[in-house]
Each structure stands twice: as structure tokens, then as C-alpha cells.
Design goal:
Number of helices: 8
Number of domains: 1
Order of helices and strands: EHEHEEEHEHEEHEEEHEHEH
CATH architecture: 3-Layer(aba) Sandwich
CATH class: Alpha Beta
Strand order of the largest sheet: 3-2-1-6-7-9-12
Shape: globular
CATH superfamily: NAD(P)-binding Rossmann-like Domain
Radius of gyration: 19 Å
Number of strands: 13
Strand content: 15-25%
Helix content: 25-40%
Structural class: alpha/beta
């Protein structure tokens, strides 16, 4: 088996650009999708396509072949529309079970900074966290399960709010009639930084770690919504005045441990 091989479970907004980037670096890349029409696009970009569903159980004709890689990027979106969040945990458990019987030695899990409560203040990776809702409980349970796994090493990447590509800051402003927590800081990260952080983790062979993936600066919701509305030519947003709930996601560990400098350190510059 090629030692520079990776399987990306979920070639969507982040997974597909990551697959193209890793391919350009010489990796053998396998990518999964749930959409038959997308397999052609993946193949055109040099990505070996697999049509897989994580129901559970895993569904597809080439499940074993997909997991024949050294590294697995576990990138299944935790959709807010999911009626029962515990279903997501069962999906991940099905993937872990399959991974145990494969050659995969390293797993990178796309988690979220939503595991931190909104009023935590400085959000750092070594914080002792307790679940504050069902979604955070599911994510924390998955993180702990992966980090305690004996068959392979895991790295947890807690991504902040995702922007870039077709995700524009302020694109939903017209729907937000009453913006809460106007003085609360925002935590965002650009697609290109997400891609390069995952790539850096793979290149450096890191395992057993948790990293926050978030831009350097944290403008307030008032600042970013006001600027975005002006840029889009919309009426100024209406804010619901309240005491600020402060959550500032720290990226210091990531920058030091990975020797990484963010391409897009300031979300305000993206507007």
C-alpha cells in the first residue's frame, strides 16, 4: 500500500478542495460521496471516487477498498437538520468499527468549536468540558472515543464557523431580523486555512492531539454584520441588545505546534 495515501470520508465543501490539494502534493487520494453524479467530478480531479453512505450501517460496494489507506479524514457533516443528533454518533461508531479492521493508522476528525459553551470566555483545547446541549454531548463523546482508541491514532480538529468558497459572510443577513448577542465575538475560519491545517497535520504525522482551527481576530457580531450589510447594500441589521456572551476561540496551540500562519487571519477583511 502506498504510504502517502489518504481516504476522505465526505468530499463536500471542505473534503473536495482538500482532496485536490493533497493530490497536488503527490498523495494517493480516495474520496467518498453520496451523490452518484459527483463521482465523475472527483475522478476528473484525480481523486479515486467511492459511492458510500454512512446510514448506519455503512453502505456501498467498495467499503473495504475505501479504507485501504494510511490516513482517514473523517469529515461527515453534523447537520443541524438531523432529527436525532444521536444518529450522528451511531454513524461515526460505524466508521470506527470499519476502521479498526483496516490498515488505517491515523484518523483526523472534523469536530466543531460548538463543543465550547457560548459564555466560556477564552476557549482553549485543555478546557475541561461538560456537554451544554445534545449536540455538544455527541461531539465530546465521539472525540473521547477516538482519542482512547488503541487500533489507530486520532487528531481532533475543532473548526470554527466556516467561510470561503460559496459560504459568504453575511449571506443570510436578510433572514436575520433580530441579531442576538451583538457585542459577542465571532469565531470564523476560511476554507483555504482549513485545507492547509489538515494537510499540515498529515505531513507532520501528528496524533493524539486536539486543535482549535479559527482565525486570529474576533470582531463582534455588530461589527461584522454591519459591515456585511453595507457591502451587500442591505438595510442595517436590527440588534437585540443584551449582555454579551463571550467565547473567543484560541488558535495559539495550533500556530505553535504546527508552525502555522493563517492565510486569512482577519474575518473583517473577507467582507
Amino acid at each position: 500500500m502506498d504510504q502517502k495515501s489518504i481516504s476522505i470520508l465526505g468530499c463536500g465543501w471542505l473534503g473536495e478542495p482538500l482532496a485536490r490539494h493533497l493530490g497536488s502534493l503527490g498523495y494517493k487520494v480516495k474520496g467518498s460521496t453520496t451523490h452518484p453524479e459527483k463521482t465523475f467530478t472527483l475522478k476528473q480531479n484525480g481523486i479515486e471516487p467511492f459511492l458510500l453512505e454512512v446510514a448506519p450501517p455503512l453502505k456501498g460496494k467498495q467499503i473495504k477498498e475505501f479504507f485501504q489507506s494510511e490516513t482517514l479524514f473523517l469529515n461527515i457533516p453534523f447537520k443541524r437538520s438531523l432529527p436525532d443528533p444521536s444518529l450522528y454518533q451511531k454513524q461515526i461508531e460505524a466508521v470506527i468499527k470499519e476502521t479498526r479492521s483496516s490498515p488505517v493508522s491515523s484518523v483526523i476528525f472534523a469536530s466543531s468549536t460548538s463543543v465550547y459553551p457560548d459564555n466560556i470566555g477564552a476557549a482553549q483545547e485543555d478546557a475541561v468540558l461538560r456537554s451544554h446541549d445534545l449536540r455538544s454531548k455527541v461531539l465530546l463523546d465521539i472525540e473521547r472515543s477516538l482519542l482512547s482508541e488503541k487500533k489507530f491514532r486520532s487528531t481532533i480538529l475543532r473548526f470554527a464557523g466556516l467561510v470561503g468558497g460559496d459560504r459568504k459572510i453575511g449571506q443570510f443577513l436578510a433572514e436575520d431580523k433580530d441579531v442576538e448577542n451583538p457585542e459577542g465575538p465571532v469565531n470564523l475560519v476560511h476554507l483555504e486555512d482549513c485545507v492547509r491545517v489538515v494537510s499540515r497535520v498529515i505531513e507532520q504525522g501528528i496524533g493524539g492531539e486536539i486543535f482549535n482551527v479559527c482565525a486570529d481576530t474576533h470582531p463582534t457580531r455588530r461589527e461584522i454584520y454591519t459591515k456585511a450589510s453595507m457591502k451587500l447594500g442591505l438595510a442595517p441589521p436590527q440588534f437585540k441588545e443584551m449582555e454579551a456572551r463571550v467565547k473567543i476561540v484560541s488558535n495559539e496551540k495550533l500556530k505553535q505546534r504546527l508552525n502555522y500562519k493563517f492565510l486569512y487571519p482577519d474575518p473583517m477583511a473577507l467582507i
